[in-house]
Amino acid sequence: MSAKVGVLGAGAWGTAVAKVIAEKGIDVDIWSHEAATAEDINQRHLNSRYLPDVELPHNLRAFTDPAATADGKEFLILASPSLYLLDSVKKILSVPSIREGETAIGVITKGFIPTAKGPRLILETLEDYLPGFYRQSLVYIAGPSHAEEVSRGKITGLIAASESAKQSIRFRDLLKTGRLLVFSSFDVRGVQVAAASKNVIAIAFGMLDALKTSAAERGMEDIFGDGTESLLLAAGLNEIQTLGRAMGATHPETFTSISGVGDLDVTCRSIFGRNRRFGREIIEKDILKSFTSLDDLITRISEVGYLPEGVVAAKYVKVLAEQHNLKMPISLGLYRILNKEITPIEFLHAFIKDLG
Questions:
Q1: What is the value of pTM for the model shown?
Q2: Number of other CB atoms surrounding residue 257 within 10 Å
Q3: Which of 65, 88, 211, 354 is the most buried (most CB within 10 A)?
Q4: DSSP 204-231
Q5: CA dihedral 282, 286, 289, 292 (to 10 degrees)
Q6: Distance (Å) of CA 279 to CA 140, 198, 226, 312
């Protein structure tokens, strides 16, 4: 084998995780669907587009062929955005080490997968496509983390969730360093739901944050403060728990641990959060103005210039809430904002009135 680890997806998070592993002296191959990014990694040891100003190890190599990246690896980490994850996996099904189940597979993508049956969790969807060896042995990795911080050695905690204790431990050992702490969990469904749905809450939080800091400038009554944001965050966590239970979460502590409240908090409050940023730009830049609906926004999401996963998740959370008959006012309110049915101010006032 030329390398022990492959990473499919050279965005910021995939690159950061690949860097952490490569710095442990392990050869890592990473797949980029953009030739310019692959060349940047190989020639300059940088990913200028997605992770600027972070020098990458020389034992991290980039490819533009996903099958070549996955071939013969002991570990493969899937990092493509949820919109494109299934297409990435379909491109590696013929790789011998995947076909024979010799490669351990972990997933760091957050979101839901659209299928003919409606939105589904990532691992259960991948199990339908991957060889039977992978059933109940895939590992889902999430937690309060940002590529910008992990790539710079900031202390961070992650959860490696799997129905297979052996595979969870293998990925935990692969990823952990003195500054990247990794913990095991059996609550695969709960961790996935928390990772996907928190992005929806973070967009709402970003809108509120922008209104809190600019109400006076916009001629509005200054009624939003830090306490309002904490109110939204706590109510959002309740919605995540509600959806998680309905979708088969097995451990209540999942939502009070780093994969629940921890991931939600950092996504809502960090300056690196793309979903928080998108929420702020709904207020500050009227970024929804050029889109006619949520479906139009998803179709033309590349025009935003970055990928706020919560936009896609908002569509699927609405479907899941209706399927399970759940009351989720923040998530459903955000759906209506993105679908151009109500304004952010109308949503926030209706949300607070509903709580009261």
A1: 0.94
A2: 22
A3: 211
A4: HHHHHHHHHHHTTTTT------HHHHHH
A5: 10
A6: 27, 13, 16, 14
* pLDDT at residue 71 is higher than 90: yes
- Residue 344 is encoded by which pair of tokens? 């952010």
Q: Which residues are catalytic?
A: 198
Match 């998803």 to its residue by tokens: 298
Rounded Cα gap, residues 328 and 347, in angstroms: 13
Dihedral angle sign, alpha carbons of residues 71, 72, 73, 76: positive
48: helix, strand or coil: coil
User: Averaged over 170-196, what is the pLDDT?
Assistant: 97
The Cα 32–Cα 20 span in angstroms is 18
Return the structure tokens found at 263.
Answer: 């991931």
* Cα–Cα distance for residue pair 164/158, rounded to 1 Å: 17
Q: Are 248 and 186 in contact (CB under 8 A)?
A: no
225-283 pLDDT, tens per residue? 999 999 999 999 999 999 999 999 999 999 999 999 999 999 999 999 999 999 999 99
- Helix 122-129 vs helix 188-214: angle between axes, to the nearest 10 degrees? 130
Altogether, the residues listed in the chain come to a count of: 356
Q: Report whether 155 contacts 182 (CB < 8 A).
A: no
Contact in structure between 275 and 310 (CB atoms under 8 Å): yes
Please tell me the predicted confidence (pLDDT) of residue 3. 60
The edge-to-edge listing of strands for the beta sheet with 5-8 is 60-63, 28-31, 5-8, 75-78, 104-107, 139-142, 156-161, 180-185
**DSSP-assigned beta bridge partners for residue 158:** 182
